[in-house]
Amino acid sequence: MGKISFPKGFLWGGAIAANQAEGAWNIDGKGMSVADVAMYKPHIDIKDYVNQWYVGLKDIENSMKAKEDTYYPKRRGIDFYHHYKEDIALFKEMGFKTLRVSIAWTRIFPNGNEEKPNEKGLQFYEELFKELRANNIEPLVTLSHYEMPIYLVNHYDGWVSRELVDMFVKYAKVCFDRYKDLVKYWLTFNEIDSVFRHPFTTVGVVEEKYANKKEAEKAIYQALHHQFIASALATQYCHEIIPNSQVGCMVTKTLTYPETCNPDDIILAQRDNRNNFVYTDVQVLGEYPRHLLNYFNKNNIDVKMNEGDEAILKQYTVDFISFSYYMSMVQSINAENREKVGGNLVTGVKNPYLPISEWGWQVDPKGLRVSLIDLYDRYRKPLWIVENGIGAYDKIEEDGSINDDYRIEYFRKHFEQIALAIDEGVECMGYTSWACIDIVSASTSQMSKRYGFIYVDADDLGNGTYKRSRKKSFYWYKNVIKSNGLD
Questions:
Q1: pLDDT tens-digit profile of 103-148?
Q2: What residues make up the domain containing 434?
Q3: pLDDT band at 337 (very low <50, low <70, confident <90, very high)
Q4: Which pLDDT score, from 0 to 100, does residue 65 have?
Q5: How far apart are CA 209 and CA 198, in angstroms?
Q6: Residue 3 falls inside a structural domain
Q7: Record's PANTHER family (predicted)?
Q8: Mapping DSSP to helix (H, G, I), strand (E, B) and coil, where does residue 207 land?
Q9: Coil, strand or helix: which one is 347?
């Protein structure tokens, strides 16, 4: 292809999450979150995402007693809490225009239901955002990124309880008031569609509490509705408190292809894609799609909605759509007889035309272009790719260098497809790679599954100096940003 063209002001950068990076899980008044329960499970296959993500009642009980972090890597992260100035300096060196971070709810309200916020938590994020501003990096801030207070799971059954709506809105308003002069771009819930992939992490639903799968499904839909309402109300107050602010939803873009041109394969793929659009339909169009309401009726799923809920969803829709994109999937009427692949709890038929990562994720740059066009044509809203990257084992050479050409190739191919989508009329605000610095993996709680342009010297059990060093991809991405995608 010819020269890649990105619009002037395109927001190049990277993304991390508090629960995977900050560490400092029990200092300065921070409470325990669902992430502090997540265990590193070396005895379970890294491609067995169901059991890697699973958290049961006994797991919660044991984790509440455990005071160490050896097998709870998200408790230590990469100690971004104490290294953030050093890390931001490296992001500035790369030329970042933006950095996506999240606020840990439990730093602000340790249990989630306190009357007053924790000042030390508020102070930390104020200093973080000021440091970003001082380095001309625009903060993109997620309010809830898989880090809800564990207290709300144990005492309120998570987001199944309507009371969490008010608690979250209070937390959001505190953040908007405190950071109104520092943060313009906000996201409400990270990958809100992940409620069925890992309900404990996303909405605090412990499935074994319920009599059967159907009862658990009802609880998850109820929890999802409460998050939709909380997100809409947070959007309302953000616009009121920060007049020039923009609020986005955040979803996982899972693109599904039919295996063949058999109409039955096409119908299966259409169903999966339609279900993926549910979460943006509600937050962008402001209403539940009719096919989901029909599903509720047919399956006796009674989602309790307060009077006025429909009006809230309709009135307070988002300004832009942000999404993660890692892979595409394939559907087939003969799926039972086909080889399967998966990643991040999404499983499908293997696509023979695509390479697969060491963690079983199908790499499909052209699928990102398809996704951008599909989303923009459907909603006509600005898009922001806020997660995209490849987890891989990195080798340190004798001279200390890390020649991660595989990572460079991954990003190059995806950037080419983003440019093509933009050339076809898609309005794309920016791109934040996941993750710009090595952090603890969300799914397998590993450090050895590395995503970053910056290497962090730490292993899966927390051993290491935590020293930061630049990979080959660091310098490559720096040139991409400097040239706005031309190089």
A1: 999 999 999 999 999 999 999 999 999 999 999 999 999 999 999 9
A2: 11-482
A3: confident
A4: 93
A5: 15
A6: no
A7: 6-PHOSPHO-BETA-GLUCOSIDASE ASCB-RELATED, GLYCOSYL HYDROLASE
A8: helix
A9: strand
**Is 166 inside any structural domain?**
yes
Tokens of 423: 């050339």
What is the CB-side half-sphere exposure of residue 260 using CA atoms within 13 A? 8
User: How many Å separate Cα 262 from the centre of its chain?
Assistant: 34
Residue 410 gets which letter from DSSP?
H
251 and 323 in contact (C-beta within 8 Å)? yes
> Hunting for tokens 């490296």 — which residue is that?
90
* 484 Rama class: left (phi>0) / alpha (psi -120 to 50) / beta: left
Burial class (CB in 10 A: 0-12, 13-18, 19+), 247: buried
> How many domains does one find in the chain?
1
Q: What is the CATH number of the domain that holds 372?
A: 3.20.20.80
Residue 487, domain member (yes or no): no
Q: What is the DSSP string of 385-452?
A: EEE----B-----TTS----HHHHHHHHHHHHHHHHHHHTT--EEEEEEETSB----TTT--SSSB--
**Contact residues for 19 (Cβ-Cβ < 8 A; gap 6+):** 33, 35, 36, 74, 77, 102, 104, 145, 146, 147
- What Rg do the C-alpha atoms of the chain give, in angstroms? 21
Between CA 468 and CA 23 the distance in angstroms is 16
Q: Is residue 78 part of a domain?
A: yes
Question: Strands 185-189, 138-144: parallel, antiparallel or unpaired by DSSP?
Answer: parallel
What pLDDT digit, counting tens, does each position of 389-414 carry? 999 999 999 999 999 999 999 999 99
Contact residues for 111 (Cβ-Cβ < 8 A; gap 6+): 31, 149, 151, 152
Q: Residue 319 and residue 316: Cα distance in Å, rounded?
A: 9
Number of helices and strands in the chain (H, E): 16, 14
- Which tens digits make up the pLDDT trace of 346-394? 567 889 999 888 777 889 999 999 999 999 999 999 999 999 999 999 9
Name 140's bridge partners.
100, 185
Q: For residues 278 and 300, give the distance between their C-alpha atoms in angstroms, rounded to a whole number.
A: 19
Q: What is the pTM of this model?
A: 0.96
Q: What backbone phi and psi angles, to 5 degrees, belong to 367?
A: -65, -30
